[in-house]
C-alpha cells in the first residue's frame, strides 16, 4: 500500500510513518523544512513538498498513493494561549482539510483519514461527557470545527 501523510513530522505523523513502514508500506510524507525532511527520511519515508492549501500541488505530491492521511495541525504550545495563536491551526482545519479531501478525490485514493480531537464536547467543569453533551461553542478550540 502507498500512503500519503500530511503532517508526517508531527507527533501523530511520525508514529504513522513508523507504523506503516514497519508493515512494509510505502510512505510519502509532506514536509515543510529541512529538519522535517530529515525526520521523515530517518523513518524510511519518501519526501514531498507542497502547500497544504493547494489541492493541485498536493495531488501531484500524492500521485500514486492509495491512502491520504490528514495528520497536520498547528496546535499552540505557548503557556498562555491567545485566540490569535489558533489562527494557523484554524486555517489547517478549514482550508487544509478542503485541499486534502480534493487531493484524495483527484488521485482516486481508496481511503481518506482525518485526525480529530475530543475537546469539542468537553464541559468546562471537567464533568464526564459523551455524544449527548452539547458542544462547548465558547472554546477557541471548537471555533474551526463549528464555524461555517
Using the alpha-carbon principal axes, give the shape: globular
Q: How many extended strands?
A: 5
Question: What is the residue-averaged pLDDT?
Answer: 87
Spatial ordering of strands, largest sheet: 3-2-1-4-5
Low-confidence stretches: none
Number of helices: 5
Beta-strand proportion:
5-15%
Query: What is the terminal separation in angstroms?
Result: 35 Å
The helix-strand sequence is EHEHEHEHEH
Radius of gyration: 16 Å
The class by helix and strand makeup works out as alpha/beta
Helix percent band: 25-40%
**How would you sum up the major sheet?**
5 strands, parallel
What does this entry look like structurally?
With 148 residues, the chain is an alpha/beta fold. 36% of the residues lie in helices and 14% in strands. The mean pLDDT is 87. Helix 3 (55-62) crosses helix 4 (87-107). Strands 3-2-1-4-5 form a 5-stranded parallel β-sheet, with helices on both faces. The chain is built from 5 helices and 5 strands. The termini are far apart. The protein is globular, with a radius of gyration of 16 Å.
